[in-house]
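Journal club prep — side note

Before the paper discussion, L.F. wants everyone to see what a predicted structure for a comparable chain looks like in token form. Sequence:
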Amino acid sequence: MSNVVKMTDTLEMVGFIKTNGTACRFVSLVCDTPVVKLKVGCPFYGVRKIARKIGLINANYNTSVRKRIAEKLGVELKDAEYENGEVWYKHILTSDNKPLPLVVNKKKDDGKYYIQYFPHKSTHKYTLANGEEINEELLVPYFYKQSDRPDFKPCVISLDLANIRQFKASGIVIEMPDFEEAEAILAD
């Protein structure tokens, strides 16, 4: 049985993630994220994406890429090389300098924390500012085309903690004040 902890501030969630450690594990998230990258002329103001996501935290990106390269080339992992490229974030580290799944913008101190995870499964719905659900097909023409990612690079998402309404990890369930509203939208 899970322990449910009610939190009101993302810094409380930061504390939990820090104590959760660096072991690779599955997490479950319920998120309410404003959709800000829409083309000019989109008639749908205040669109939000409400999603339930399952993914891995603390997975090693470099090792994951090297495994895929080794598999594709038919060589052993030790013979596959990959050097990480430049990124916009920096990891928060444990007291013994191990990276946590928490990241911050390395160029600006805006007080935002992000959870970095490898997505595994997700379901979502879109709503307007008034809470009315909107069919995704109506939004598709206003989405920007996503850039292609080489097949040897896994998808990694950095999600603003302020958008998380529920976070499940290690038998603990963290719920933020607006969780019930997001859960109700996903339940419809």
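L.F.'s comment for the group: The mean pLDDT is 91. Keep this in mind when we get to the figures.
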